[in-house]
Amino acid sequence: METRDHYFWKFHSFPAVPMSYEYAAWEGTDMTGYYACIPYRYRIGETMATAGMVCDVMTGVKARGKGIFTKLGYYSTDAMANEALDFAIGYPIRPEVIPGHIKVKWKIAYEMPIYIRFLKLTSLLKKKKLGFLAPIGNKLLKLYNSLFVNNEINSDYVINIIEQDYFFKLKNYEKFFEDWQKTVSNSLMKTMEFMQWRLSAPGSTYKIVTIHKHGHLVAVAVTRKSVMEGITVLAIIDMMLIPGNETCLPALNQSLFEISKNYEAEAIVTMMSKTWAKNYRLRGFGFVPSPYKFRLIIKKLNDKLSDALLFNEVNWHLMWIDSDDL
């Protein structure tokens, strides 16, 4: 995103003081490198901590191969430490950038695959110059997806699909989030104030599935229409569920399917750890892991938090909402 509106939303409206941290390398009056992060608040175990969520790292085309990425990486993370940030966090997907991060003392915590549930194969087959196979492929896919239809919707649950402006008015979200956060070890502080910022990128529209049981909010899924590799998809950027309410998952997945149909999306996609893919029963709803994998990388900036807490996959609940993607 290259618009002024998007830049000022991301780096100059975040609900914190300061709102962001930006660093640059210069050669005369030419910017040759850029390194930026946003101060995301996390609860890590029983400790509150601030992470520098590194979301934009760039090196000028003419400056590559001169060690600027390494020098700027050291400079920026040292500066973050001096600003009392506790750790830096990032989500690279391109393998070629990993060595540069490792050189600056980042560590890989674990991988997070993109999980996909295809609804149509038309665009994918056209991209591979196999469009003539689409009618047959779509019929076979429809048969495959029929294996995952679950019509046993628990009548105790009330399901609504709303847009972000209505979501921001929910009175019981804060109580829901408080209860949900007690069930996970490491989690982003997704307060309503944070959600109002995160879901208000210029030009963005989100559909949020809310599920109530006996008047209590028990599950939330945040989605957005996107285009990935030329395919229109419905991306699930966050999903939270109070344990003990797993029987609402069929209704939740049915709602995701309905949103996808309205968007004419050809797939539903999400990014999460293998642990949470199992907890949310993704395979049981027709999702498969793709070859595309994000990596959670972390650089400790002080000794406040233990490696055991930070680098163990089962401690984390991370999805796209933890990044600046989507």
Task: Characterize the structure shown.
It is built from eleven helices and twelve strands. It is of the alpha+beta class and 326 residues long. The relative contact order is 0.18. Strand 10 (231-241), helix 9 and strand 11 (267-271) form a beta-alpha-beta unit. The chain has helices spanning 4-12, 68-82, 98-103, 122-127, 134-146, 164-167, 173-181, 192-198, 249-263, 274-279, 307-310; strands spanning 21-27, 30-44, 47-59, 87-90, 107-118, 157-163, 186-188, 206-213, 216-228, 231-241, 267-271, 288-300. The chain starts with a helix and ends in a 16-residue tail after the last helix. The longest helix has 15 residues, at 68-82. Strands 1, 2, 3, 4, 5, 6, 7, 8, 9, 10, 11 and 12 form a twelve-stranded mixed beta sheet that branches.
Walk me through the topology.
Blueprint: H1 4-12, E1 21-27, E2 30-44, E3 47-59, H2 68-82, E4 87-90, H3 98-103, E5 107-118, H4 122-127, H5 134-146, E6 157-163, H6 164-167, H7 173-181, E7 186-188, H8 192-198, E8 206-213, E9 216-228, E10 231-241, H9 249-263, E11 267-271, H10 274-279, E12 288-300, H11 307-310
Parallel strand pairs: 3-4, 10-11
Antiparallel strand pairs: 1-2, 2-3, 2-7, 4-12, 5-11, 5-12, 6-8, 8-9, 9-10
